[in-house]
């Protein structure tokens, strides 16, 4: 179980790494180039900073991969030297009558060398074409600056002589008309035609020459052997560099491979390896140290806005405990909320909400969260006696003036007891004696008890004594008129005692 969990976690982390904005130098595997600068060209995966083959792998096979060439392999530093034209963008001259368009330029870099010209829908040869007497041309955009050494062209199985004479031009800018001569050929062409063309270039222009038959050419595959050409002059002095894969390290804020370009927006740091945190309004961070000049998005903290004040929550099984319930107060205890970002305890607090039956919740107490305890308590006063209450605790996160409730606890109910009756205030005592008798009576009149509303008073007991006596006597309870709970009716209640002796 634990092991499975670990594997799942690992996969999540890897996926996250690959989809993050920060640029990697070498892809991990040939299937996952993503935003990496260099593709991985190893059979069993690549070292992500050096590009070297790992797990005993070797350089992958290169395109075109046919029985004729017996499967080329990438070679050189990090397997980055080989056919750099494969799957790149190609264009070509098309004659005004439409010839050439059916056999698009891209077919010369599709990795397939089949020498049959094929048709509109199938085939693997490009066919640059022009008006009779003009030079057909074909251009590949290598996508970056490469150091190339030779060009190998797979000929058609018909009209082979069209590759007898041609020139190769090179150019470093998208202005495709400005090419400098790199190689020319003038020899009977066979199945495979090769030319030395040593150059640092971004584009390669194949151009037919030689009248009168220069208006068309069949290019079943154009292979350009080379590697990336990277200048080392902007690398930090302490880094090592070569022209194939560039600087091994760039100063913060600069991108590999050559440390000339600033980090892409949203990334920062050494080699632009870090993703910005959550800067306010989605603004990018400083490319050097990642700090957010505009401040953080809400609930994010620190200079780089990567610390998140997560939303606290209780499970519904987390219910507050109540203790020391009196007629007007209660002690409420609850556990620590879940999902609190550790180290940010001061950004959390609790509110105890209490409501009387039929009423609505009122916040009765605010308690700061702290990491010193996992048990919080609050003594709530001001309750009504003899009342049913519900209590719940709500966790909050706060930042500056902002605060937001998380998920509250479940609800606990309790009831306050009745209050003890007050000693009633005696309003009047009327003594009456019977003439000629030693008997008399006393009327004791007292005010209505204040504790009305709670029907828990069982009896009123009257104590009396002679002034000279030290012991109190009490009137038997069953002789005192019972107390009623209804305040509206009884402002004043008179209780008449019958007789007593003195
Ligand atoms: C060819 O290039 C396109 C875009 O440049 C890319 O999406 C595709 O994966 C490449 N195909 C291969 C087989 O490398
Ligand atoms: C081009 O590459 C070749 C072989 O990899 C190397 O000998 C040559 O010095 C490179 N040229 C430049 C200008 O870097
Ligand atoms: C390719 O080179 C040939 C000869 O150098 C030139 O005539 C042609 O215009 C070039 N193609 C482009 C698109 O510049
Ligand atoms: C090719 O070479 C032959 C003989 O050396 C020469 O006559 C011809 O002009 C050349 N053609 C081109 C296009 O250079
Ligand atoms: C913690 O809170 C964050 C949002 O603040 C949420 O995305 C995450 O799912 C929460 N985790 C748990 C375990 O509740």
Describe the structure.
There is one protein chain. Helices cover 4% and strands 31% of the residues. The longest helix is centred in the first third of the chain and has 18 residues, at 2-19. It is mainly beta and 502 residues long. Among the domains are: 78-228, Galactose-binding domain-like (Jelly Rolls), CATH 2.60.120; 321-415, Immunoglobulin-like (Sandwich); 426-501, no CATH class. The radius of gyration is 47 Å and the shape is rod-shaped.
Task: Give the topology.
Blueprint: H1 2-19, E1 82-83, E2 89-92, E3 137-154, E4 165-171, E5 180-186, E6 192-208, E7 221-228, E8 241-242, E9 246-247, E10 267-268, E11 274-275, E12 300-301, E13 307-308, E14 321-323, E15 330-335, E16 348-356, E17 362-368, E18 375-380, E19 388-399, E20 402-405, E21 412-415, E22 426-433, E23 439-447, E24 463-464, E25 473-474, E26 492-496, E27 500-501
Antiparallel strand pairs: 1-7, 2-3, 3-6, 3-7, 4-5, 4-6, 8-9, 10-11, 12-13, 14-15, 15-18, 16-17, 16-19, 19-20, 19-21, 22-23, 23-26, 23-27, 24-25
The chain binds 2-acetamido-2-deoxy-beta-D-glucopyranose (5 copies).
Residues 135, 137, 139, 167, 169, 176-177, 179, 205, 207 line the site of one 2-acetamido-2-deoxy-beta-D-glucopyranose.
Domain Fibronectin type-III: 316-416
Pfam families: F5_F8_type_C_2
Keywords: Signal
């Amino acid at each position: 179980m634990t092991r499975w969990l670990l594997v799942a976690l690992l996969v999540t982390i890897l996926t996250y790494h690959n989809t993050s904005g920060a640029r990697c130098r070498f892809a991990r595997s040939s299937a996952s180039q993503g935003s990496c600068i260099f593709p991985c060209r190893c059979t069993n995966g690549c070292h992500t900073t050096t590009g070297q083959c790992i797990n005993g792998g070797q350089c992958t096979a290169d395109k075109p991969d046919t029985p004729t060439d017996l499967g080329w392999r990438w070679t050189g530093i990090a397997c980055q030297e080989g056919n750099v034209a494969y799957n790149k963008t190609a264009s070509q001259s098309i004659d005004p009558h439409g010839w050439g368009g059916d056999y698009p330029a891209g077919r010369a870099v599709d990795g397939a060398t089949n020498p049959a010209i094929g048709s509109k829908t199938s085939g693997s040869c490009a066919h640059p074409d022009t008006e009779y007497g003009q030079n057909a041309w074909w251009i590949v955009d290598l996508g970056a600056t490469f150091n190339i050494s030779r060009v190998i062209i797979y000929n058609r199985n018909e009209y082979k002589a069209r590759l007898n004479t041609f020139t190769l031009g090179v150019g470093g800018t998208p202005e495709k008309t400005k090419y400098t001569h790199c190689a020319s050929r003038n020899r009977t062409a066979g199945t495979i035609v090769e030319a030395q063309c040593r150059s640092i270039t971004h584009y390669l222009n194949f151009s037919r020459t030689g009248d009168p038959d220069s208006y068309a050419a069949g290019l079943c595959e154009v292979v350009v052997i080379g590697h990336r050409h990277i200048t080392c002059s902007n690398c930090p002095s302490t880094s090592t560099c070569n022209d194939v894969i560039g600087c091994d390290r760039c100063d913060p804020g600069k991108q590999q491979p050559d440390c000339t370009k600033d980090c892409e927006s949203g990334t920062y740091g050494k080699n632009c390896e870090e993703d910005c945190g959550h800067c306010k309004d989605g603004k990018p961070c400083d490319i050097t140290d990642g700090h957010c000049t505009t401040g953080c998005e809400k609930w994010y903290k620190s200079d780089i806005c990567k610390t998140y004040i997560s939303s606290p929550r209780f499970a519904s099984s987390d219910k507050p405990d109540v203790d020391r319930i009196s007629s007007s107060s209660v002690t409420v205890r609850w556990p620590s909320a879940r999902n609190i970002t550790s180290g940010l305890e001061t950004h959390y607090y609790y509110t105890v909400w209490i409501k009387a039956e039929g009423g609505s919740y009122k916040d009765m107490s605010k308690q700061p969260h702290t990491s010193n305890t996992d048990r919080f308590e609050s003594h709530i006063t001001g309750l009504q006696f003899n009342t049913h209450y519900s209590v719940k605790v709500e966790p909050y996160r706060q930042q500056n003036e902002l605060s937001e409730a998380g998920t509250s606890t479940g609800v606990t109910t309790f009831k306050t007891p009745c209050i003890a009756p007050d000693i009633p205030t005696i309003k009047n005592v009327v003594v009456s004696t019977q003439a000629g008798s030693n008997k008399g009576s006393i009327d004791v009149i007292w005010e209505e008890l204040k504790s009305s509303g709670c029907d828990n008073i069982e009896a009123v007991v009257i104590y009396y004594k002679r002034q000279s006596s030290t012991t109190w006597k009490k009137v038997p309870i069953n002789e005192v008129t019972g107390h009623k709970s209804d305040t509206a009716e009884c402002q004043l209640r008179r209780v008449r005692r019958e007789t007593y002796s003195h």
